[in-house]
């Protein structure tokens, strides 16, 4: 047998009250580690990326932010779940014959959407994304409604409910806008529809409530079941 090199893996917690920053410093100065792996949260990734550059250490990160904002010594790993979601979106569009679509997102989901957008940008010959805008349901809606007919929503449920209200008020034929909502929180479809209907009930006019609920039924829900750890474990046991 040839010479073997023994490596040590030290694991410390992160992503809780920024404890990853302190533990990264401990690993660098006390353990003198060769590289860092993690943390998988955006709140700490950018700072650790800068520290790793200063310390001349490699930093492997699967955090969404690291695909967009990183230093030279940071290697960004795109999560498989986002690649899978992008592939599902592409498959849905092919099945429906959609060549041009729009992405709308909330502040809370922007890093997920940017990663998916980057993946789909490699398929411009198959799919064109005409709209890529952030909205709270009110902002940018004129551009959205006049630039695309097929809308993929990466909004929070509250923002989605507000956007549907705006769609009802501003669009001449709101039912002509297919909306596919991408859920990253693993919320059940029924819970999403119930939340949307509860937002509709805030309206005092019963006719408005009925019209909003009708629009809610035309929203399709999509999420990647491979992100669901329980289902993945069950599938593994079957195998």
From TrEMBL:
Superkingdom assignment: Eukaryota
Native source species: Caenorhabditis angaria
Protein name: Receptor ligand binding region domain-containing protein
Keyword set includes Membrane: yes
Pfam family, one: ANF_receptor
Domain spans labelled Receptor ligand binding region: 15-167
Keyword Transmembrane among record annotations: yes
Compartment(s) where it occurs, according to its Swiss-Prot or TrEMBL record: Membrane
Cellular-component GO terms for this entry: membrane
UniProt KW keywords: Membrane, Transmembrane, Transmembrane helix
